Each structure stands twice: as C-alpha cells, then as structure tokens.
UniProtKB/TrEMBL annotation:
Entry-linked Gene3D superfamilies: Aldolase class I
InterPro entries named in the record: Aldolase_TIM, Uncharacterised_Ycf23
Protein name: DUF561 domain-containing protein
Organism: Leptolyngbya iicbica LK
C-alpha cells in the first residue's frame, strides 16, 4: 500500500471517491477525478478500464483504485498504472437482481490474489448477507489476502425521515457492518455506501479507517458542486481527527 494512503488509514482520514463500477463515460469520470483531486480526497475508485486509468493519471496524482467483479478484468488496468484494486462496489448490480454470495466473493478474492499477488487488494462485503455472515466473510477474505475490507448498505436502507435523521437512517447498515467487522480484522475497514458529511464521523467512531462515497458526488451535474461535496467530506474527517488529538 502506498505510504500516503497507509497514513490516511492509520489516521482515520482516508476518503475514497467512487465514480462507479459501470461508469465508462470518460467525461463523467474525468469530472469526478477532478472533483476528488480539488476537494481533498485521498484516493479514487473508477471502473476497471485501462483507458480510464491512463486518463485519470493525467488528471491527478491521487492513487487510483479500479473496481470489477471478474479477476481477469483487473489485469489491463493494473498494467496501465492502477495503484490498487477493488472487488465489489456491488450496488450497481442489486437493481438488476444480481446477488453476490459469500462463497462467490471469497472465490473471486482467491482467484484475483493468485492472478495479481502483489497489488493492494480491497474487497467489499455484500450487505445482502446477515451481519454475522458479513463478519465471518470479512475474516475469510483477510485470510485469503485482502488488504482492505469495504462495507456497504446504502441501497438497502429506507429512511423514513428527512434531514439529519434521514441521513443517519440511510447510513445505519454500513455503519453497523463497519463496527462489527473492524472489531475482528486487522486490516483497514473502509465504510462506504449511503454516507454523507453528517455520518462520515460516525463511520470513524464505529471503527472504520476511512470512508467511500459515490453517488453523492458522481450523480451531480455541476463540477463545482462535486468539489464542494468532496471538500465537506474531507473536512468532516479532519474534524474527527482534530477532536481525537484534542482529547
């Protein structure tokens, strides 16, 4: 793992901005990359595509993570310069009725690690699993070579309130997973899916070493608004760190 990224995880300040596993639109990905760079993100997560990696590398010095759900899909992007890889960001598939079970995710992790033994590997634990099953899978994934565990859950939540209470309700599944998984694994846990600047500090308090945010940024049409959201997330994490130092 890159030293700067490792430091960010150690300090509980890692901020990953996700452009989308199925987003291959160069202009949209470029906008997210620029927003992440200007807003103070720690690293980026883009679709596993060599051309997108090369483009991102021209726009930013931030570490580039690529996401896919097939081991072979990582080879070309890694050769193009991707710094780390992510099995997951499964949210894009749930609306299509596609599930990812524990055995499937573990097998994919084993295949990917065998194919790419040296790259930093992050793996998402599917939120469709019961919480105890998520914990068990996370332990198995680390044993299989995962360097980072990512949680999810935003798409499964159904907030019944607006405002701050609604934001907390939306983040509850991924916060719960981060809490339970971080207690049993020795690698960084990245809390993702359904987070905001309101719930980012809660993720760190729950035991996460960082957060991942996608739709709150990549669904915006205004690049200045994208930068503002990234900046608000980065500042929320910095506030947590300052509070910890003060104590």
């Amino acid at each position: 793992m890159q030293a700067k990224l490792q430091t960010a995880f150690a300090q509980g300040q890692a901020l990953k901005i996700i452009s989308g596993l199925t987003n291959f639109d160069r202009d949209r990905v470029a906008a997210v990359v620029r927003a992440a760079d200007q807003g103070g993100a720690t690293f980026l997560d883009i679709a596993a595509n060599a051309d997108l990696v090369r483009m991102a590398k021209e726009l930013t010095d931030l570490p580039i993570c690529v996401s896919a759900v097939e081991a072979e899909a990582f080879v070309a992007p890694v050769a193009a310069g991707a710094d780390l890889i992510e099995i997951g960001n499964f949210d894009a598939f749930y609306a299509q009725g596609i599930r990812f079970e524990a055995a499937e995710v573990l097998a994919l992790t084993q295949q990917t690690r065998a194919l790419l033994p040296d790259i930093t590997l992050s793996v998402t634990v599917p939120h469709i699993l019961a919480l105890d099953e998520q914990v068990a899978l996370a332990e198995a994934l680390v044993a299989a070579g995962a360097d980072i565990i990512q949680t999810e859950g935003g798409t499964s939540s159904a907030p019944t309130h607006s405002g701050t209470l609604g934001l907390i309700e939306k983040a509850a599944p991924t916060l719960a997973a981060a809490r339970e998984i971080s207690r049993v694994v020795s690698v960084p846990v990245l809390c993702a899916s359904g987070l905001s600047d309101v719930t980012a500090p809660m993720a760190i308090a729950a035991g996460a070493a960082g957060i991942g945010v996608g739709s709150a940024v990549n669904k915006l049409d205004n690049e200045l608004a994208m930068v503002a959201v990234v900046r608000s997330l980065a500042e929320a994490l910095q506030t947590v760190n300052r509070a910890a130092i003060a104590r």
